[in-house]
TrEMBL record:
Residues in HTH cro/C1-type domain copies: 22-76
Protein name: Helix-turn-helix domain-containing protein
CDD domains from the UniProt entry: HTH_XRE (cd00093)
Phylogenetic placement of the source organism: Bacteria, Pseudomonadati, Pseudomonadota, Betaproteobacteria, Burkholderiales
SMART domains documented for this protein: HTH_XRE
Native source species: Paracidovorax konjaci
Superkingdom in the source lineage: Bacteria
PROSITE patterns membership: HTH_CROC1
Classification via InterPro entries: Cro/C1-type_HTH, Lambda_DNA-bd_dom_sf
Pfam families: HTH_3 (PF01381)
GO terms for MF: DNA binding
Length: 91
């Protein structure tokens, strides 16, 4: 018997792109995942899920992450627009 694919476990491309942008910015600043989670006030394991695109974040947590990266929201989201997953889907 073939199991049906559980679509509830599929990752949203937007969440994956957000997570990749967070990971890229975090690494560029020399933070480990644990240290960055401490700066943001977000648990390391939850931060890992964010970076893998597994969590749909509340605005408060998005702003905590952006503040910890020492960016303005507009700067972060402009960079997010330029990630490969987002540039390929634009017409």
């Amino acid at each position: 018997m073939v199991k049906a694919k559980d679509s509830s476990k599929e990752k949203s491309p937007e969440l994956v792109a957000f997570g990749e942008a967070v990971r890229s910015q975090r690494k560029a600043r020399g933070y480990s995942q644990e240290a960055f989670g401490d700066v943001c006030g977000i648990d390391r394991s939850y931060m890992g899920g964010i970076e893998r695109g597994e969590h749909n974040l509340a605005l408060v947590n998005i702003l905590k992450i952006i503040a910890a990266l020492e960016l303005r929201p507009s700067e972060f989201f402009k960079a997010l627009d330029n990630t490969p997953k987002n540039t390929s889907s634009k017409s």
